[in-house]
Amino acid sequence: xxxxxxxxxxxxxxxxxxxxxxxxxxxxxxxxxxxxxxxxxxxxxxxxxxxxxxxxxxxxxxxxxxxxxxxxxxxxxxxxxxxxxxxxxxxxxxxxxxxxxxxxxxx
Length: 107
What we know:
Blueprint lengths: L2 E6 L2 E6 L2 E7 L9 E5 L9 H6 L4 E2 L10 E5 L5 H13 L14
């Protein structure tokens, strides 16, 4: 894998090829949405039980107001933030089909 990191929405987006996998966000204005924003693949249910077992702290991103359901947050203030962030990276490295999608701008 050859990840590429780019600025996005006051954070840092991580792409592999054309696929966007996650964004890292840490901003004082919206602290409840700080952490790792994980991008689900098309067809992945945000309530997927196995995904919730793998990453139990996943939740909706408040700043998105429920408008974009394929982005979920591993909150930075979670008790197991580092563990879950590393687990998300492991899932990406293992090509987990539930994660990543090609944004409209790259299609």
